[in-house]
Amino acid sequence: MAIFAPFEWTIATRYLRARRSSGFVSVIAGFSFFGIMLGVATLIVVMSVMNGFHKDLLNKIVGINGHIFLQAADTPLTDYNTVAKQVEKVQGVDLAIPMVEGSAFASSNFAQNGSGVLVRGIQETDIRRLPGIANNVRAGTLDGFDTAGGVAIGQRLAENLNLRVGDKIKVMTANGAQTPFGVAPRVKAYKVVAIFEIGMAEFDGIFVYMPLPEAQAFFNLDKQASVVELFLHDPENIDAVRGKIEQIITRPIIMTDWRERNKTFFDALNVERNVMFIILTLIVLVAALNIISGLIMLVKDKSHDVAILRTMGATRGAVMRIFLITGASIGIAGTLAGFLLGLLIAENVETIRQFLNQMLHANLFPAELYFLSRLPSVVDPRDVATVVIMTLALSILATLYPSWRAAKLDPVEALRYE
């Protein structure tokens, strides 16, 4: 036996149609439909954009910075090649790259202002394997990087200093040569051999890569490395890999990972995502409340019809199911429309952003503020399912009280003054 009888569907469908006597009720139903549709679509789009932020930032931050960082303890890290070979044997470790890192100031003859930079010394074989650099060279080449005597810089840094491949960049550090009068700053000009674009404005504006021996000489780190960076196959499975590394390393080492270095940043991103979900859920809740008010008005408007149905033999359950179908239809239709609209926008959010930028002659997503050069979006089926199920549940719950009121209607009282 079907849960809903055919005549219940017929009557519920009639109540959803606009008539002169109940036009206002139909207007409320229409607003409820659009409220639910917009609420669902907005939730799906916002959750997808937040997921895109998390994924892109994680890929770009750890794609160029590594997942685990090994630094010297007790003695200088002169055996960096041995350490790198040891940890590359650990299951789950894709790359182990020794580096020299140091802060410096960069300038050029083509720009009035300079810029603070992070200089990284790296071997040619390693920079070619570095995920964030090797596949994102926009000008020049990394061929012969060890012997070219030049540096690779980010696209934004090149723009700020008006540099092109072949031009020279001046790099200055306060930790230069020791003199009788103290430590003298060291300034050296390097030819730009490659320009890369990671896609994250923060990194494209500060990184300068130079050959490892040159960086060791520049920062007075004779045959030493500052850090050995490890790139894992699965960054989320970091704890298991850390345990294996601790067992295989034969020298004192300080080990940190990307979660510790970026904990505040990603925690803030998760908090923002959860708060946005709660705030936008209120849109759906308001639309569900509109369903309640619309159904209550519909019950009062149709009290005469309900009384006649009861006298003709319709049970209270049948009356309740009629109004359940009426209210739930609004919620289900709005949820389905919002689901389709949300997926459509989420899949084309970057195209929409570019269109709005051109139409409004404004930059709605400045890379300097949001770190990324494009608006990312990743649709997570679990998030979409959560939004759809929550909205359907709220919509159905919103119909229970008005439907119960309609079922409790006394036909004698409703027809007393007819």
Q: What is the makeup of the main sheet? A: 6 strands, mixed, barrel
Total of DSSP H or I helical runs spanning 4+ residues: 18
Percentage of residues in DSSP E strands: 15-25%
**Average predicted confidence as pLDDT:** 82
Describe, in plain words, how this protein is organized in 3D.
- It is a multi-pass membrane protein.
- This protein is of the alpha+beta class.
- It folds into two domains: about 5-60 and about 265-415, no CATH class; about 75-250, no CATH class.
- It has 18 helices and twelve strands.
- The strands form two sheets. A six-stranded mixed β-barrel has the order 2-3-10-5-9-6. Strands 7-8 form a two-stranded antiparallel ribbon.
- Strand 7 and strand 8 form a beta hairpin.
- Helix 12 (about 265-300) packs antiparallel against helix 14 (about 315-345) and helix 12 (about 265-300) runs parallel beside helix 17.
Per-chain topology:
Elements: H1 6-16, H2 23-65, E1 68-72, H3 80-88, E2 93-107, E3 115-122, H4 124-127, H5 131-134, E4 137-140, H6 145-148, E5 150-154, H7 155-160, E6 168-173, E7 178-179, E8 182-183, E9 186-196, H8 201-204, E10 207-211, H9 212-218, E11 227-232, H10 238-248, E12 253-257, H11 258-261, H12 263-301, H13 303-311, H14 316-347, H15 349-360, H16 367-370, H17 381-407, H18 411-414
Parallel strand pairs: 3-10, 5-9
Antiparallel strand pairs: 1-11, 1-12, 2-3, 2-6, 2-11, 4-9, 5-10, 6-9, 7-8
Helix pairs in contact: 1-14, 2-12, 2-14, 2-17, 12-14, 12-17, 14-17
Descriptors:
alpha+beta; 12 strands; 2 domains; 418 residues; two-stranded antiparallel ribbon; 18% strand; 6-stranded mixed barrel; Lipoprotein-release_system; cell membrane
